[in-house]
Recover the amino acids of this structure.
């Protein structure tokens, strides 16, 4: 009886080592979960302004799928538990034909988790796009059919040389 009771005793050092080993992955998990929640809030802002988002995994699946195939996101149990944003990163935000303006674009600043943004047939000018680029992690902007002057977009390219700015010929003069 006495020997069985002493078999399950641990030293304080063993307990501290065990707690430390458990804390390291929990810190990583906590940080990653906070990042996914921040991304989810950013996505909610984009969708509130009429934009659509595309995850990297979705775009990769579209590239690999045969033409005409419908792609639906996976509905795994762990995605339902932790959320889509825990496992996937946003690849693209698209504003096509939305009523986003220079004033409403301030709601998006800063975009930390969206590396690529499309503005097509919107009321945004180069000034609004400049505000978005100045405080975020946007690396590429596609612009078409926006209320922006060609000269303003050239100035944007000079001001933000690390950002790839691609514009269509449907610009308003």
């Amino acid at each position: 009886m006495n020997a069985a009771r002493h078999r399950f005793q641990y030293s304080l050092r063993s307990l501290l080592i065990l707690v430390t080993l458990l804390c390291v992955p929990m810190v990583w998990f906590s940080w990653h979960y906070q990042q996914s929640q921040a991304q989810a809030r950013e996505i909610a802002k984009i969708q509130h302004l009429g934009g659509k988002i595309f995850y990297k995994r979705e775009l990769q699946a579209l590239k690999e799928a045969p033409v005409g195939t419908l792609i639906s996101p996976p509905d795994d149990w762990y995605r339902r538990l932790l959320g889509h944003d825990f496992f996937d990163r946003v690849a693209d935000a698209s504003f096509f034909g939305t009523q986003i303006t220079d004033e409403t674009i301030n709601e998006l600043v800063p975009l930390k988790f969206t590396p690529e943004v499309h503005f097509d047939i919107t009321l945004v000018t180069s000034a609004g796009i400049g505000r978005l680029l100045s405080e975020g992690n946007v690396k590429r902007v596609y612009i078409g059919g926006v209320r922006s002057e060609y000269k303003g977009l050239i100035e944007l390219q000079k001001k933000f040389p690390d950002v790839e700015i691609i514009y269509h010929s449907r610009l308003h003069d």
In short: Residues 39-167 form one domain. The chain has one domain: 39-167.
